[in-house]
Amino acid sequence: MTQTTTPPAGEPGTQRRPPLDPNAPVVLTVEDLKVQFPTEEGLISAVNGVSYQVKAGQTLAIVGESGSGKSVSSMAIMGLHDPKRSRIGGSIKLDGQELVGASQAEFRKLRSATAAMIFQDPQSSLHPFKKVGAQIAEAYLAHHKVSKSVAAKRAVEMLDRVGVPNPDRRAKQYPFEFSGGMRQRAMIGLGLVNDPKLLIADEPTTALDVTVQAQILDLMNDLQREFGSAIIMITHDLAVVAEVADHVLVMYAGRSVEHGTAQQVLANPRMPYTWGLLSSVPSLTADVGSDLKPIPGNPPSLLNLPGGCSFRPRCAYSDRVPDNRCATELPEFLEVPGEPGRLSRCHLADPAAIFADEVAPNLE
Amino acid sequence: MTDNTTDAVEGAGAIDISKRAEESVVHESQRDREVLLTVKDLAKHFPVKEYSGLFPKTLQTRAVDGVSFDLAKGETLGLVGESGCGKTTTGRLVTRLLEPTSGSIEFEGREIAHLKEKALRPMRRDIQMIFQDPYGSLNPRFTVSKIIGAPLEIHGLVPKDKIKARVQELLEIVGLNPEHVNRYPNEFSGGQRQRIGIARALAVEPKVVVADEPVSALDVSIQAQVMNLMSQLRRDLGIAFVFIAHDLGIVRHFCDRIAVMYLGKIVEVGDREDIYEKPQHPYTQALLSAAPDLNVVRGAVPNERIRLIGDVPSPIDPPSGCRFRTRCWKAQEICAAEEPPLDPEDGKPSHTIACHFPEVKTNLVAEADAS
């Protein structure tokens, strides 16, 4: 269904981020998280010691290619890995509660109430045989002792809040009757129905068209301001990161390679992988006619990671590090001197200068 | 389709083409166009059954509904638009994987819109397709040699004993190891598979390649590799591309001309600079302004976003008049009553816009402040 109301032309974008509140309470602390999957071919180390924090009302974007461990690490927070088929180590503290080693019953209590997740494909993550309103009501009922009619009313309220037109009628429809964008809105409504402290959005707009993507990103920003949730946004699209994130964590082959504010990481990155990501995207203002600058090669197999820095086989700068250290020694994930909260994993002595002199001029 | 709309579209097409002919005289030096492919009033309606009531009704989904464009030798035409706008169907009609409901497709002066399979065969050599899904578009039970060799064999281009050598040559052109001819698709990564798909399309030395979202299933770092390969092929082999994509950055990078589609129609066509710097159709403006912008963090003044409300209407029952009017902030009565023809911008026949109120909008920020 479409609305025929006149949209405000050029309404000021609300997507720019408000200033960070340094005193916001920490909602999630992940420390040295490891997720491994034993397979017939060997042990797959999907996440290899990742640490980060998310504060209330703030958004952390986790960026990386397929296989970088960005989704796997977030699924661990939700307890979505089969304990029989995975090994999870390290620590995940959500709202003070330790989740590594928590039972399924504990996870059930916390899912949707404290932490909720939105998936990339709203088509397959909503139940196809249940009415949309009923699915949202069910999530509400699981954590609130209210009557069914109250829950149903709450579901309609939620649909209205996420911008689904005619929420009364829409609540009684099935997911297939919704368009992609509407389904993603319903999914967000389902995620936020219990007012969770943490919302994990796994590529929430990848399957959507740009105009709908813009609507959903705006909606998420508005809702975050209203509900004050912490958001983890998993994405591979750096332009989306620029629009919605306060902090960015770049992952490569199961490890964090760069962390900082969106401004720091996107405007002044210190790790060659991040440079590569930025260089390989054609922007809407870049010079046309020249070739793009891809990262050569493919990500390594998680079954046998290369020794030293995992990115070395694709890195154009490793020969500038003396003694072949990139091949022999895994760089530590260290704080950049003078910039608290800013970390990177690279042996290069002066990455800032290399970026400014060699990489940045090609990005404009 | 009513007679009315057909007339309007035909009229538009005629203007477009006659102006183009004039232009080719005027701008000959600037734009040496040798038209390979001319598409006129192309339409494809898919029947859908609606089961409400006792008897199912057959309705028509107007996936493509009167599309006209042409493609010159060595040129790249980008087709952009949201899902459901008919860009993929247009690609499939041009390659004649689908037969159009009406309209004409002329390739090198020959009408191919309704040719039968047998008569189509020779022409299939000239128009090839690269598909979006590198997993679904390669037969998992065929070796690379068989996948790329099949078109060579079908068209009898290379003697049987030389097929393998030619396949290896093609693999080398697309940047794969020629020793991998006997491998199966599952032994390759997504980017490598897309290269195999490209090699298969190149095998028959086509003049036109229709690439349907060739990189959207790939990771960003791999996307750039495949895009560079396509740019290189375009330069070296002079292939004309119809490039279907929703990523506006990639389209801008790769395409000379761009056609913006909305609900089965082209709403604006122009050269790259026209579309990206001086878009005139409100939908083009909205589409461009919706793309998230990485430069924001580098201190660039963000473009104000035109927020479109709601979704694309159903192509089964498209709005009367201008199809974009239900989401357009400029819509007036005439927009519902009359379908705007694809008219050239003043003095510039290469840039055509289907809007009753076209307007250059370069600085969306200033616009928002003024209003």
UniProtKB/TrEMBL annotation, chain A:
It is found in: Cell membrane. PROSITE patterns: ABC_TRANSPORTER_1 (PS00211), ABC_TRANSPORTER_2 (PS50893). Residues 1-23 are annotated as: Disordered. Residues 28-278 form the ABC transporter domain. Keywords: ATP-binding, Cell membrane, Membrane, Nucleotide-binding, Transport. Pfam families: ABC_tran (PF00005), oligo_HPY (PF08352). One of its GO terms (biological process) is peptide transport. The keyword Nucleotide-binding applies. The keyword Transmembrane does not apply. GO terms for cellular component: plasma membrane. It is a peripheral membrane protein. GO terms for molecular function: ATP binding; ATP hydrolysis activity. It comes from the Bacteria. Belongs to the ABC transporter superfamily. NCBIfam families: oligo_HPY. This is Dipeptide/oligopeptide/nickel ABC transporter ATP-binding protein. It comes from Flexivirga endophytica.
From TrEMBL, chain B:
PANTHER family: D,D-DIPEPTIDE TRANSPORT ATP-BINDING PROTEIN DDPF-RELATED, TRANSPORT ATP-BINDING PROTEIN. Belongs to the ABC transporter superfamily. Keywords: ATP-binding, Nucleotide-binding, Transport. Pfam families: ABC_tran, oligo_HPY. GO terms for biological process: peptide transport; transmembrane transport. This is Dipeptide/oligopeptide/nickel ABC transporter ATP-binding protein. InterPro entries: AAA+_ATPase (IPR003593), ABC_transp_ATP-bind (IPR050319), ABC_transporter-like_ATP-bd (IPR003439), ABC_transporter-like_CS (IPR017871), Oligopep_ABC_C (IPR013563), P-loop_NTPase (IPR027417). GO terms for molecular function: ATP binding; ATP hydrolysis activity. It comes from Flexivirga endophytica. It comes from the Bacteria. The keyword Lyase does not apply. Residues 37-288 form the ABC transporter domain.
